[in-house]
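ok trying this again, last paste got cut off
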Amino acid sequence: MHTVAAAIFISVLLFAAASGQFVNDWDRPFTIQCRHGYVLKSVYSEHSNHKEDRRWAFRCSRAPNGAFPTRCYWTGYVNYWDAVMNFVCNRDYVIAGVHSVHDNHREDRRFRFKCCSHPGFRTHSCTLTPYINRWDLPLSYVAPSGQVFAGWASVHSNHREDRLFQFFVCFYARWTGTLLSRLRTPPLAPWPDGGPDIILLWTGYIPKPNQTSTPQK
């Protein structure tokens, strides 16, 4: 019975990640994972001024250049309540899952990420996007062709009770021995406007930090 329930949960979770449906309700936690060997491709989010929270939708796709990342780990939480988030996966790892919890008192979210790698493939020529969203407005971003998500950066406003987000994206290709450049930690962009005044409904699943995923057969 438990095996059947787990299989149903995983199927629905993967469908939500693949289809771009909202994976959480207001104020609720969520966990999404891309299917085995796939990586995060796009992020969409809408904010509610009444709930002071965001709903999230994600899409996954095959990794570029024939990569099939299956060596994975979950981070611990990478930000504190109301604090800056400045996160990059380990070198040559890319994002393939997201977990988040919301606090109604702080009106903020904390995030954890699933990072995966394919031996022999490297991230290179990485860039940090500008802020993708404005306060209280939708967020929509698709990783450019041939590129993958390798990190997230964010700032929080206690006045707006919202976050602005940037994404750290990299090209991902098989190592050829050529020197490739990669920023280790993305610098945060300046505050906009002169400063701040920033798959599935909750299922009970919380990934353990630094947990290595067992490759699926």
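PB: full thing came through this time. Residues 74 and 208 are 7 Å apart (CA to CA).
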